[in-house]
Design a protein that fits this description.
Blueprint lengths: L1 H28 L1 H4 L22 H8 L2 E4 L2 E4 L13 H9 L3 H7 L2 H18 L10 H13 L1 H4 L5 H21 L7 H16 L4 H18 L11 H20 L6 H16 L18 H8 L11 E2 L4 E6 L2 E6 L19 E5 L2 E5 L12 H5 L7 E3 L6 E2 L3 H7 L3 E3 L4 E5 L5 E8 L3 H4 L2 E9 L4 E9 L13 E8 L4 E4 L5 E4 L5 E6 L5 E7 L7 E11 L5 E10 L8
Antiparallel strand pairs: 1-2, 3-4, 4-5, 5-6, 6-7, 7-15, 8-15, 9-10, 11-12, 12-13, 13-14, 14-21, 15-20, 16-17, 17-18, 18-21, 19-20
Protein name: Heparinase II/III family protein
InterPro entries: Chondroitin_lyas (IPR008929), Hepar_II_III_C (IPR012480)
Organism: Mesorhizobium newzealandense
Length: 574
Amino acid sequence: MALAASSTTRLWTLVAREFWRKTRRRLRAGPIYRWRYSGRTPERVLIAPPDLRVADPQIALEIYYGRYPLSGHLVETGGKSPFQINVPNHGWQKTLHGFRWLRHMRAAGTELAAANARALVSDWIVMHGSHISGIAWESGTTAKRIIAWLQHSSVVLQGAEFPFYRAFLKSLAIQIRYLRSMAREMPDGKDRLRARIALAFAALSLPAPASALRGATRNLADELDRQILADGGHISRNPMAVLEILADLLPLRQTYANQAETPPQALIGAIDRMLPALRFFRHQDGSLARFNGMGATIHDRIATILRHDDTAGAPLLHAPHSGYERLSMGGATIIADTGLPPPIDVSNAAHASCLAFELSSGRQHYIVNAGIDTYGAAEFRPLARATAAHSTATINDTSSARFSHSLRVNDLLGSPLIGGPQQVQCKRTDQKGAQGFIARHDGYVPRFGFLHERELNLSANGNVLAGRDRFLRPGNAEIRNNGRDFVTIRFHVHPDINLLQDEHDRLVLAGDQADTWVFTSSEVEPEVEESIYFAGLGGPRRSRQIVLAFKASEVAEVHWQLTRTSIAGYPENN
């Protein structure tokens, strides 16, 4: 009860803080403050920073014909400017106003694409440049737009006449001043970090006094030190956040070098930590493990980022600050969540996934978490975040962490995680020829009085994954049959895997490659049930799951094993 009251207090403190932030943002966008964003217009763009995000000239052609494939949705404008039409999809609107799609015009490399880019930027300036409100001026979207306009200023300004050139620089200056005033008011998380990145880009790319660059550099360093953990993970515990932040930090480091400025040590250190962290979360096929907000992976983007990783050897196996473990041997890779939930301030995308794991073998995924449908309907997000959508155990069909479902809270904060494990203990058990760990969490203690302990051990050159799930009372008290001790352990099978039964009634997981894995359990008979995989590139897909269901009062400890019976010939370590 005390923990629940503490979580509720923290939640309403956040609500009050966010309400105050929004009030201050409205004031700063009003006529009383708006004059502060006017001022001297820069004479020119000194340098266009690089953009590492993958570009497609075909998308530039689609945009030219009025078809906008943004944020997983295609909108046809029928000859109108996209800024004139009302599209109810919030993600599409944010992506439109973020202007990252300018990279496709640059990739096209034609005068037609440059003219179209210039026309669209001009439309935005006319329709939204002098009216600070709505999605277009959300702080996170403004930061993306500033970075995009700077990165692709060469294509936007190609062939531009002087009036447009001045209007572009004047609007850019207003946006930078606005973001500078709003950055300190932004909620915690990657949007606030991106705002500091955008302001550093601006101080480097436009004529500015030395004091402006020093201030932007100092604020960026403070935010990096606070948000990037010692093992390279992000405080949100979302693998996608590592990828997204690196896609901005690497060009920023290059921009410092191009301008003969010394980047802050915090920037260099963050990149040096985050590149190995990105490799830590990566399966051999290039996709990132589906934890805490991670959906489908854009493989080309990861490959582009990792070209900047000069480290050699296998990925790290232990990320204690981020709260993850990795087992890797003989072509088999296991990535597991062994950490506490992220701070409530940055938990809007966090999952109740403690002690869940994923198993891949070569370039094939076998056991997965459901992940999220990045561009899908918001009503499916709670399902994807629940413990039942992960390859771990639930007690009485309840998640190990709670989420806020208050409409008043959600309007301000989204759906933060407001309860979950308070203690997670994890110990590596590596030995010669084997890698493993034992972890335990107390997420079910307040409601049901159970600790969940999981041990995973990968051995035999990656051919055997042995697992043990144990349920116990704090202090090793006796487990009673009180109707509140029903346990379900789930192993979600990737939809590309065939789940069969062999002649011995064992469950066989067979993929397109030569690898075949056999699932066995000694104490409980496994069952097969329907499931759903949210993180498919084409959207949600039907899948299946292996389920072990039992009462903890009857079976307190379950042993199970996944054995690779045919092998595609992998090296001893990867």
